[in-house]
From TrEMBL:
The chain crosses the membrane at residues 12-33. Keywords: Membrane, Transmembrane, Transmembrane helix. The lineage of its organism: Bacteria, Candidatus Uhriibacteriota. It comes from Candidatus Uhrbacteria bacterium CG10_big_fil_rev_8_21_14_0_10_48_16. This is Prepilin-type N-terminal cleavage/methylation domain-containing protein. It comes from the Bacteria.
Amino acid sequence: MKSKGFSLIETVLYIGLLAILLPSFVMVTLGYIQKSESVDPKIRMEEKAAVLFSEIQYELNQAQSIDVTGSSLATDDSSLVFVDAEGVSVTLSRTADAIAFIGGDQTIDRLERETASNVQWITDSDIDVNVWNVAVVRDSAGTLTGLNISMTMSVLNADGSPYRDISFSTDTTISLQPYTTEL
C-alpha cells in the first residue's frame, strides 16, 4: 500500500535541518541589513559629489571668466565667483542653513549657487559640507589653467543625533578652457 505525505521521522529531520540552517540565515540577513545601513549613505554622498562636480565642471568649461580677486580661495570656506556662458555672475559658496530634524533644528553648511536673480542649494539638506576649498592652478607662466576643489561631507541622522560615522572627502582639479579669462 502506497501512502502519501510525510512520516514522523521525515518531519523531525526537516525540522532539525531547519533549526540548524535558520539561525545562520538570520545572522547573514541581519549582517547584510546593518552593512547596507552604513553603506547606502556613503554611496549616496559619492554619487551626489560626482554629479555636483560634473555640473561644476560643465559650468566652468562654459564660463567666460573666473573672478579670482572677488573669490575667497584656498580656505576651507572658499567662495568661487565666475561669469557663466550667458554673462551672468555666479557665486558658489558654503553657507549655513538651519534644518529641522526630529530632535530639533541643526545648523549645517551647504553649498549654494547664487546669481543676481536666483539662489539655490546644490547639496542635500541632510549632508553637511565640512570643507569646501577652491584653489587656483597655474602653469609655469602664471596663467590660470584650472581650479583644484577639495570637499569633505558628513551625513546627518534624521533622528536628530548629530552625525553618522560616515564622511566622504574628495579632491579634483578642473581644467579651464583657453578662452576663460581671469579677472
